[in-house]
User: Fold Origin recognition complex subunit 2 from Symbiochloris irregularis.
Amino acid sequence: MAEGVTFLNPKRRTGGEGKLALADLALESGAGDTADGKVLAGLPVKHINEKAHLRAVHEEQFPHWIYLLKRRFSLLLYGFGGKHALLDAFARRVLIDGGVLTVNGQAPGLTVRQILTRCAAMLRHTSLNHTRGDPEVLMHQLQSARAEPRLYVVLHHIDGPGLRTAEAQGLLAELSACPCIHLVASMDAVNMPLLWDRQASAQFNWAHFDVTSYAPYGHETVLVPSLLLGCKEEQAGKGAAVVLRTLTSAARTIFRLLAEHQLSGGDLDGDDESGGMTFQALFRQCRERFLVANEMALRSHLSEFKDHRLLQARRGLDGAEEHVIPLQASALQQLLVDMEPAA
Assistant:
């Protein structure tokens, strides 16, 4: 798991000794933390009775869902409306005979390896540091584990950005086929099943349920303003801080070098065009600090920054390519304070 991951929020299930922990791979921030979230929360709620009836109808299926899970089916919930509250209620009321790991598939930087690591840690009752390793090694540990104790993996948004590849879905399919693992997932992207070949579909062994609720997408859209739409500079900075905390300390140090160079080269309004840094200049500083061994390693870090939209390339006044962080100086200064994980 990436060093300094801050969206791991372990909790303990109350009652009963020897039970596995109830843990979350999710963002710490809530849907109401943003200005947009507060505005949406203030909108009038319509059709309250009809929505409550739909919720009650879905909750009546809980006994059937747990019956299918214990017979080696995985559950896939789809339909219009937020599904987070329904899945959370199912996990807390019904999944009481084993450990429960809830995963927010929308979390920035989330990887299948992180999910496997947490599963291995919970089942082996060891710390995360003792179970880090190659996904194949982690998968072997999980496949060789006994069917008891059970571990229920509640995956919100199996179609999340970090999981939307055939490789990631293949690993999740293998995970769901482990004797000790029971998977419950939600999905909103209608074309997501295209990533599942015959083998993955057989391993998932899905039981599909339409849980249309017309509930607001509160938890589902908490990251949209900061990471996808970039509506506000402040929210963009907060989103960047969340992403940077999931990266290694070396990656954060490289980003800090870029940021400090940009701040020293531009004015406080962020309008100066001289704040960018060339690759060779950055490589020299990284080599002096023993952050990278070669140019390929540095390019890998820069590509990761660009994938998360933390970095852009442009031509400087002399025609050389420069790397620039697309934030104004005030937001960039605050980001340098917020980017380090809590001790």
Q: What stands out?
A: Strands lie at 22-25, 74-78, 98-104, 150-156, 181-186, 206-210, 277-278, 312-315, 321-324. Residues 73 and 205 are 5 Å apart (CA to CA). The chain has two domains: 22-221, 231-338. The chain has 14 helices and nine strands.
